[in-house]
Amino acid sequence: MMEQFNQTAEAIIVSAERLIREGGYNGFSFREIATEVGVKSASVHYHFATKSDLAATVARRYTERFMVAIDDAMKCETNVRIVWINAFRRALVEDGKMCLCAVLGTTSNSLPVSVQTETRRFFECALDKLNLSGLTETQSVHILSTLEGAMLLSLIFSKTSVFDQAVKELM
Amino acid sequence: MMEQFNQTAEAIIVSAERLIREGGYNGFSFREIATEVGVKSASVHYHFATKSDLAATVARRYTERFMVAIDDAMKCETNVRIVWINAFRRALVEDGKMCLCAVLGTTSNSLPVSVQTETRRFFECALDKLNLSGLTETQSVHILSTLEGAMLLSLIFSKTSVFDQAVKELM
DNA sequence: TTAAAACTATCTACCGGTAGATAGGTAGGT
DNA sequence: ACCTACCTATCTACCGGTAGATAGTTTTAA
């Protein structure tokens, strides 16, 4: 089950996720999060000792939430590809932001190890899940790559239609 | 033709490209570049007035170089898909880094406008070139998305084989 | 021809501001 | 009494950017 945090810690995680998805690991600060949440930066340190602790927690949370969403969707829709396309599409359209782990992943080699590990775990979990859905490993890697790339192009052009176009060939 | 810079400015661009590809727009500083190049940070400002000026120049250079490489490769190999796969593969294997414009693109909405514009231009140029090679727009968007995503996954897993696996289905 | 003016490329020294992180204190609940 | 969750205050290190000086080179013009 998902690790529990109190109200302030939860608000910090939500704020941090948004800021990382917008500006990457180097694009958020304790002070900015503190202001958003309504506390002082020292209080953010009380809940998360270091920046890497916070980012790693955010990434783990993101992965857990994403994988639960996939499992839920699989209860209603048997076509694996449709489930995954919709999951990424929702992350793009509802949040208007990139996948958290894609943002972190592009700068993977400059991240603290704990954050790097959590980022990689997202992709490991995703590939495991795809493989267990009856796809070959090659198909899984191809689908996941295309989905992340489609999100990127769609965000850059600010057009959801680009995402839809990119993933059309996955079906 | 490509804009000319003197030796120091060229070294600054090379250094900045490497640092941005490793840590994103917020992951490089005038001081770090200055140290690498062997001058003081004030001298970097002499060649590039602001951080966004430098990043925009780096992105424009990257795009020009990439598109020239595609044109060159098309002289020897007629299969468009092979040309593009090899171009991305080389950027990944030889540099061991992500595509510059993918790194910048993931945080697109938090970039200075000039950098955002240059980043988008890379993808516009790429799609134009693909479209002019006899592919449909849907095919072009799909290929470019998959290539960027394949680079990302390959980098995260530190395995070139992941790239090869992801793009196998493009052929 | 040569002296003055302008330009290039760098330096040192500094600005206000922000970064992550820490020490130590306080109010309220159990 | 202790623990939780905050606070104020502070630290060192670094950020992007600017001012002003300097030495060497090039252009201008008497």
UniProtKB/TrEMBL annotation, chains A, B:
PROSITE patterns: HTH_TETR_2
Molecular function, one GO term: DNA binding
Source superkingdom: Bacteria
SUPFAM superfamilies the UniProt entry points to: Homeodomain-like, Tetracyclin repressor-like, C-terminal domain
Keyword S-adenosyl-L-methionine found: no
DNA-binding region(s), residue ranges: 29-48
Listed InterPro entries: Homeodomain-like_sf, HTH_TetR, Tet_transcr_reg_TetR-rel_C_sf
Key words of the record: DNA-binding, Transcription, Transcription regulation
Keyword Transcription regulation on entry: yes
Location of the HTH tetR-type domain: 6-66
PANTHER family: HTH-TYPE TRANSCRIPTIONAL REPRESSOR NEMR, TRANSCRIPTIONAL REGULATORY PROTEIN
Protein name as annotated: TetR family transcriptional regulator
